[in-house]
Amino acid sequence: MTGVISQLLIVSKDPTANFFAESGPHSSALLEGTVLMKLSSKLKNPRMTLEFRGVSESRWEFGGRLAQKSESPSYKVTRNMKVFHKSSDLLHDSKELTPNPMGDAITFPFRLSLPHNRALPPSYDSNSGSVFYSLKCTVLYQDGLLSKSTKEVDVPVIMQMAEPVKEMLLTAQSDYASEVHATSETVAYTVHLQSTTVLVGASVEVDLGIFQTPANTKLRLFRASLRLAGTFTNDQENTTGNAKYPRPLSEVSQAFPLVKIGGIGGSEPVKRQFQLYVDPELAIASFEAPLINIKTMLRLEIILDNSESANVTVEIPILVVPPLKSRRYAEMDRHQSTIRRVDSIPDSIYSMASMATTSTKRSNSIGAPLSPPVNWSEHAMMHELPLLSLEKLGRAKSARRKMSVLQSEMEHMELNPNRASQRFSISAAAEGPVNWTPEMVLQWIQQFDPSVEVVQAFHEHQIDGGILINMTDDDLKNALGIASLGFRRKVLLAIGKLQTQ
After folding, report:
1. Global pTM value
2. Nearest to 130 by CA among 225, 256, 17, 243
3. Which of 18, 53, 132, 263 falls 20 to 30 Å from 338 in CA-CA distance?
């Protein structure tokens, strides 16, 4: 052997850091670093090349099911891999290299350009699949008269979305508007999003208008959530699998005491504006790569009293963008997932014929590959008073003035799950709990549990203030059918405080 490579390393421009790269259309990303090679003797006809590769991989367990956990001796997975990018560069080619007389490594600086005409998907890793990049150095040299040998080393590269691409996505128009007219079976509603593109750590803002429920039906509740949707492909077996995520990123819901909306004898339209928080603890920035597609869906459901299934289900793709480097999470506007009443949603649905028509607008739906991880979930607190049907309004007439004061107070309070008692300062708005109407009691009970079952139980038994302050654990458990001991204790403690007012 006439030449021996005793050491071969690839180090980044900052020797203490890993290789990071940014990719995106019109970006000028470079991989900069140095190859270090230490020789113990002369090296004949050395040829050194650098290769940059991008690989996507999906993982599958026995039976063709998508892998749900890491591989182990007792849990075997098969891997479906696809190389979607490869580029190489010649770094050195000569007849001979001699060792450094000082005994140090010989250095070979390099600047490797990444594609500037397309975006590479971000680095990503999960139990079900990965997107990963590597930089490999190969040295081919003569070993003897006729034989040749090679020496190889590779290092991982972390790919991220370029900052200009994030800015472009955030500033591009990406609104969404949908309007559906009433039929004999479906709700009339409008949905509007000013933007379907959102940063990790920010919130999606939604305007919802519910204008009319079908005949002989009443509004029971609506709920909305942000949910991850991951699709993985095995192109060798021509199969796909959907990843399972334990909970939504965020969700909001509001129950109503069974109210008819619109039409003859119906209440006024329900108009709500709510926000769904994209928290860094659970969210994954949207991206699409060979074999892997990660996206976030906004799911809206409107449920009536005639079925447990949703009368309306709307799914809207949300483009989640990685956080900007110029804005730390602590500096970003953090929002709870909340619901509030608004009057600015236009009644455009009334200006058209009441027919089965759906019109949807989607502007500039951008599907460029984005960057990876993070996730979370937060359940919404809400402060909107339950709507009253016209039949109930007559009975509540004497309390209308008190309710108006109360509603005004509540709508101006800041939502904070740690300030439930401050959110509902009813004693300042009415003459005392004993004078509360059933509608006031419904609003009071929602601060402890806004679920349909609890609200419905209080509504059906017409619990007013006089009954409320004298209720016992037996009343809550047996008369109203509330099984949760913790919830009953919470309510009884609050009733005790009301008795002192």
Report:
1. 0.66
2. 243
3. 263
For residue 340, the SS3 value is: strand
**Cβ of 268: how many Cβ atoms within 10 Å?**
12
Q: Indicate the angle between helix axes 438-446 and 452-460, nearest 10 degrees.
A: 160
Left (φ > 0), alpha (ψ -120 to 50) or beta: where does 496 sit? alpha
Which positions of the chain have pLDDT values less than 70?
1-3, 25-28, 117, 326-431, 449-452, 501
Which residue, chain included where needed, has tokens 């109210």? Answer: 259
Ramachandran area for residue 76 (φ above 0: left; ψ -120 to 50: alpha; else beta): beta
Task: Report the 10 Å Cβ neighbour count for 236.
Answer: 13
295 class by beta-carbon count within 10 Å (0-12 exposed, 13-18 middle, 19+ buried): buried
Please state, in angstroms and rounded to a whole number, the distance separating the CA atoms of residues 493 and 470.
12
Count the Cβ atoms, other than its own, within 10 Å of residue 355: 8
Contact 268, 385 (CB under 8 A): no
| Angle CA 479–481–485, to nearest 5 | 110
